[in-house]
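Hi W.,

Here's what went into the run:
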Amino acid sequence: MISIQNVHKSFGDLEVLKGVSLDVNDGEVVSIIGGSGSGKSTLLYCINAIENIQKGKIIVDGVDVHSKETNKDKLRQKLGMVFQQWNSFPHMTVLENAALAPRIVKKMSKEEAIEIAKKELVHVGLGDKFDVYPTKMSGGQQQRLAIARALAMKPDCMLFDEVTSALDPELVGEVLDTLRLLADEGMTMICVTHEMGFARDVSDRVAYFHEGVIAEIGEAKQVIIDPQNPLTQKFLSKVR
Amino acid sequence: MGALIKHPSDPFLTTESGQGMDYEFHWNVVFQNMPELLNGAFVTLHVSVLAMLLGIVIAILLAIAKMNNSKPYCYIATTWVEIARNTPALFQIYMAYFGLGALGIHLSPYVAVLSALVFINAGYLTETFRGGFQSIPNTQYSASKSLGMTSIQVYRYIILPQMLRRIYHPMTNQFVWSILMSSLGILVGMGELSGTTQRLQSLSFRTLEFFMVAAVMYFIITKLVLISSSLLSRKLFKGEI
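Here's what came out:
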């Protein structure tokens, strides 16, 4: 359970989040849509404590993310994050990429870590790529590797930051299929996305961000097909 | 100038009839002095390895200082790098030996050449290290952090291994450069390969033979360094960047 309470975030004089509140229940999939600069990616970075906040609170499973007492490295083990740029570790094989964090962060034995890594790689359809170096793979494959790498830490929740935006169009499908699979398995997910079809079909709820606030939030099909807020209507008419 | 006196051991003088190039090679004296030449080669390798190791340590500190926001450190590092990279190695060695000597600080030829090489190595390697570090995208750091790694783990497993690949070959080049530049030790009477060669040829007058052999020895040393470096890199770095 993630609870975001009246969060304010500024970069210098620029206020990016102007009081955002949102509760995400276990097993729920929430998609965040909105124009660039509306603060949607920043919110994910704040949930993961990569960015700090100026006001408000973010509670993940009862832990106050930005409290000084919180061990942020420990907290991040619960929150898997996948970025727009896939960021595979180019000096390691696919298997080593996925097995590294379980081994050094969770202190698993090498065998255990490799077993989990293999399982997650098969899960995302990279079962035949264990010994390949990521630079030899397509963007879509590298993005699926990034997902498997995060899943290998057995997170309670996954944060996806525009994971298909940097991909060639023909590679978008395979990554979205992987996200669909995770959603069907009951993973709690927050997806910042520009894929309206995905937001409509896969998420339980959709939030529309506009200039640092949630302008509209509701059941996915309702927000995408029949938005109530004129700002959402305008945005969706442009991206369709 | 008048007629030149022919001297049998002087290869560069011509006869009055203009027929020169009747130089006879005498290799025996070179081979007799082989132990001394090998000793000189050892000193060459010795000073270059030491100059490289000390240079790396200082360059790491200078690179950190240069990337640091604190002004005085950054200023010192920048000055060091600028002087080291934009003045001749010859000048550095003269400053260390004669310059400091004039100020009453008398360094041995070995220490003078070593300090000059360390100074220059550190200057060049600082830029190599800084460039290598900055070439690793920031996103590698945030991606690693998002997996729960501590900052130390991120550097140990992600940033430094990638950086090492990128600076490895520039570092090898710098090492070869050091080996070749240590030959400037000849100017301050240092007993490395060139200095030894110079001394032996002036005793025997077999200039060409001694310098040809010395050149071959330099070639073999640098080739061995390059070959072992590339073998090591194949073992160290699997995969591609």
